[in-house]
Design goal:
3-stranded mixed β-sheet, 502 residues, alpha/beta, Rossmann fold, Mannitol dehydrogenase family protein
Amino acid sequence: MDELMADGGKAPDLLSLSRDTLADLPEAVIRPSYSLDQLTPGIVHIGLGNFHRAHQAWYLHRLMQQGKALDWAIIGAGVRPADAAQRERLLAQDCLTTLIELDPSGKAAEVTGAMIDFLPVESDNAALIAQMADPAIRIVSLTVTEGGYFLDAATGGFDAAHPDMQHDAAYPQTPRTAFGAMIAALRLRRDAGHGPFTGQSCDNLQGNGKILRQTVASLARLSDPEFADWIDAHCSFPDAMVDCIVPATGPSEIALVQTFGISDAAPVTHENFRQWVIEDDFCAGRPPWEDVGVTMTDKVDVFEAMKIRILNGGHQIIADPAEIIGVETIATAMAHPLIRGFLHKVVTEEIAPHVAPVPGMTPQNYLSLIDRRFSNPEIKDTTRRVAFDGSSRHPGFLIPSIRDGLAKGTPVTGLALASALWARYCQGTREDGTPIAPNDPNWDDLQATARRARTEPNAWLEMRHIYGDLAQRHEFAASFSTWLDMIYDHGVEQTLRTYLEQ
């Protein structure tokens, strides 16, 4: 029976995505020109979500389309029980992915084949350790979210007291975490004389390579200081900046891929923009990333600062007020003049002054670029997704600009308003009275603190693991308190209007 499309028409006969059906895909769908049988593994990627498949795996696929990097295929892995469902979906379609580019001028589909396997998800990570110990694996890459690196939010140092870190230090052969598994595999490689691999973070953290090194080496040092020294001396952890807007997959994305004649249980939609800037520090070799547009440089930090401060920080600036007033997508938030104005004023006056230009791009031009990207109506990126895990994202993306502003005497009032909006968001209800479902790993604590802050605003800033000493910085704390009171007394839109009129 023909399936109905979302607009009520008939969907074409659907091909179930697999190696066997690649040749039968519609002509408009780009597919691998390389033989999947010729691929051999070189990379294990941990945390195989949509972003990885639209970004790192796509760049590798593009190299393979040129006949290059055929010995750098990806083996997927996960360390959370929920990853098992993703494994089942992808293995059922031979680890192929349909990428759908969403552009106002039209949509395009491409099937990628750079991934060739997905390891079993096990509590002791035995299969993952064994695969990473294979000398054919020369890079272990990760997308484990900004909050996944076991950092002390107040200091940025390693959180040695975390129960998972304590477990992996006590039981290094049966670790719970990706980092414990990396250490176990590196020990096997050293003992067998196979040498190290490169650890490559693909998460939105400034200095992500240094942070990954800190987590791996510090965890190893808890149980074996000598081996931690070996890791520090022999492994490489390049810094990288990654960028592509990739929404979550839901029923609409499943329906969209069917309009191309494909049945794909895990399609990925993405914008028509990608950027990857990598420090060229790979101890065991690497694919020729530069041949497909990756920027290899020893100055990743300036690219990171621009992207993390303006794009990722900008996402937090618009997502929280949009959620509170019931605006569901980022593009719709950008169509709201007060929210869009808020983004532009805060970035221009309070963030951009602390961001250096990069080759070919000033901070103000970058703001114009992300305005266009955020406003793309084809990208159904939800404000809820963007607002997720504010307890990691605000410290990583916005609070550094607050500290720079206070140190240099530039305004911080708009950034104080962004913090007040986050506090109001974590209170747990929208202005129309509908509940905001938990949206942070620390939601219960955040909600309790947000409700206390309704009458004691400084309670919010006294979360030292997030704000450090900012509760004692009178200029910022007073501005935060004023905005929070105004949000509750007069609503989000009037508060934004007041800020924009200043």
